[in-house]
Structures are given as structure tokens and as C-alpha cells.
Amino acid sequence: MGKGVSIQCDECGYSATLFEGVGIRTKDFEAFIKALNEKDREFIGYIINKGTTEEVIYQNAYGKCDRCEDLATINYIKIKYDKDKTFTLDNKCHVCEGIYKPITLEEVEESSCPICNNKRFNSFMTMDWN
């Protein structure tokens, strides 16, 4: 089960629909990582197969680019392994190739439009999804 939000800026027309959580089709970790690129899948497989994995957290998450502030749904994966190591999946921005950082719904609500810098989104709708 997850949550989603649809946002739109009336100033410039920017819009996005973002999701967080894990749905029915991706509740299994193997199904979730199928959408990743081969390099990331191979490295995650290497970590998991080492047998020293302590914790695996994965879900869709709200993301904000650290450069251009674009908003998107990202694949969030955090794996703790080898007692003191942590792998976190980097998600490249499709606009500027910066890195999307996970943010909360409240941070989405407080975000400025990444195109025109309008201080608030004029249309904001939340939803639940499976």
C-alpha cells in the first residue's frame, strides 16, 4: 500500500504525480529491483549474496533533485551489510543529472516549483494506491 500526490503549478504549468510506498506488484524485493539498471541490480545481488546483510529497506519515495529541485518518484533502497557498511541507491535526475534525495510529503508540500520558483503549488491532491 502506498500514498501519492499530484501537484500542479498554475504559474507555468509544471505538474507531477509522485508516489511513496510499495504496491502489490513490487512488494517482493526481487520484483522491485527488476526496474533498476543492470549495474545496480548486480551490485545489490553481490551484497545480498555475501550473506552479511543486516537490513534491507526498499520502497518508492518522493524525491527532490539536489541541483534543479525537480520532484519525482524514486526507487529508494538502503541496505546495511558487513556490520558497518551501507548501500543507498543513487537516483539520477532526468532533467539535470543531479541526484534525487528522498523527501517527506510535508517537504513536497513546502517545495517551490522547480521551473518558475512559484512558492506554492496551486493544485495539490493526495491519494492512496495498492
Uncertain segments of ≥5 residues (pLDDT<50)? none
Strand residue percentage: 35-45%
Q: Which word captures the global form?
A: elongated
Give the beta-strand count. Answer: 8
The largest sheet is:
5 strands, antiparallel
**What is the residue-averaged pLDDT?**
91
What structural class do helix, strand and pairing data support?
alpha+beta
- Distance separating the two termini: 5 Å
C-alpha Rg, in Å? 16 Å
User: Portion of residues in helices?
Assistant: 10-25%
Helix segment tally:
3
Major beta sheet, strand line-up:
5-4-3-7-6
**SSE string, helix = H, strand = E?**
EEHHEEEEEHE
Please tag this protein with its features.
single chain; 130 residues; alpha+beta; three-stranded antiparallel sheet; 3 helices; elongated
Characterization of this structure:
With 130 residues, the chain is an alpha+beta fold. A 5-stranded antiparallel sheet has the order 5-4-3-7-6. Strands 2-1-8 form a 3-stranded antiparallel sheet, with no helix packed on it. Helices cover 18% and strands 43% of the residues. It has helices at 29-33, 38-50, 105-110; strands spanning 2-8, 15-21, 53-65, 71-81, 85-88, 91-92, 99-103, 123-129.
Summarize the structure.
With 130 residues, this protein is an alpha+beta fold.
Annotate the secondary structure layout.
Blueprint: E1 2-8, E2 15-21, H1 29-33, H2 38-50, E3 53-65, E4 71-81, E5 85-88, E6 91-92, E7 99-103, H3 105-110, E8 123-129
Antiparallel strand pairs: 1-2, 1-8, 3-4, 3-7, 4-5, 6-7
